[in-house]
Amino acid sequence: HGGDEGGDEPVEVEAITEGDGTQANPYLIGTAGQMLYVDSVLVHGAKAYFRLTSDINMKNVAGWHPWNEADPYDIEIDFDGAGKTISNFKCTGKPSCSLFGVLNGSVRNLSFTDCQVTSEGACGILAAQSGTSSPTALHNVHAVGCTVASTLVGTVNTGGLVATIGKATGTNCSFSGTVSTKSKSGYSGFIGGLVGQVTSASVFKRCWADVEIKGTSNNYCGGGLIGGSTQNVAVTVRDCYTAGSMTAVSYFGGVIGELALGTTVTNCYSTMSLFGTYALGGVVGRACNYCNPNS
Predict the structure, then answer these.
(1) Are 105 and 80 in contact (CB under 8 A)?
(2) How far apart are CA 43 and CA 123, in angstroms?
(3) Helix %, strand %, coil % for the chain, to 5?
(4) 245: closest CA among 218, 220, 222?
């Protein structure tokens, strides 16, 4: 019967009956009910493998709980979308609203359409945070027509796919839709069309965003692709582009908001329209006093 939950009845948990979670024999997920069952097979400190077998409509899934949202956030997941699409996914209110919560592992060949995340803290469609206990690999992951909004009046990162990403590789990934934060002046953070902030050595290649970004604080750094990077961290951004618009006060760049020492941006461009008061750049919003002059 596939993953189309087309009626109005709430989705009930459905057991995963195929696969054993190993690399050779991953758990097979074909319905929204089986997405709810994933929690039951996850083990702290262990790695599990999953593969989608059909498109999944999550319209009638209420009260989503991210898979890895509890301390010590040490669950590892390898998730193969197998070219399938998750639609109408929604997560509201929780501090780490997203599909995974904290992502440790790999996601590939997966698309999202018409999904919405509204959080009181860091948030993204895929994860609020990634790479806390192991590197993250994202390949061919796309979100189309999606909305990500942080409602916390405080310091928080927000990203289309991931809010805060540690050591990672991202290739051929994209986000289209809206990303926003309501944080007021006096608070700082990062907001990005694809990723809010990169905190460890990472590489992003052939990624793009067509996004409307809305920021409200004069201390925020925002980028069409990446909000900003951490000082003395080797981050490579190559062959990427952005389109859309950004409305904010300051420190916004078409590709990256804050370029720090160790970050290089190569063969990238942006056609974004930027609206703000100061430190707005077509590619980089701010290259601060410890930034890399060769980037």
Answers:
(1) no
(2) 23
(3) 5, 50, 45
(4) 222
Find out whether 117 and 150 touch, Cβ atoms under 8 Å: no
Checking DSSP bridges between strand 273-275 and strand 158-159, what pairing results, if any? unpaired
Q: Which two tokens stand for residue 204?
A: 């992003």
Contact by Cβ (8 Å): 158, 181: yes
**Six-digit token string for 193:** 């069309």
Structure tokens at 91: 């997560």
Tens-digit pLDDT profile for the chain (295 aa)?
Answer: 345 555 678 999 999 999 999 999 999 999 999 999 999 999 999 999 999 999 999 999 988 999 998 888 899 999 999 999 999 999 998 778 999 999 999 999 999 999 999 988 899 999 999 986 788 999 999 999 999 998 776 678 999 999 999 999 999 999 999 999 876 555 678 999 999 999 999 999 999 999 999 987 666 789 999 999 988 889 999 999 999 999 976 789 999 999 888 899 999 999 999 998 888 899 999 887 554 434 4
What is the spatial distance between Cα 122 and Cα 159, in angstroms, rounded to a whole number? 8
What single-letter DSSP state applies at residue 245? E
Cα–Cα distances in angstroms (integers) from residue 191 to residues 22, 41, 212, 263, 267, in the given order: 36, 33, 11, 17, 22
- What does the block give as tokens for 227? 């909000």
CB 265 within 8 Å of CB 291: no
Residue 220 identity (one-letter amino acid): Y
Q: How many beta carbons lie within 10 A of that of residue 57, not counting itself?
A: 22
Cα dihedral 252/143/169/93 (nearest 10): 70
Rounded CA separation 14/63 (Å): 16
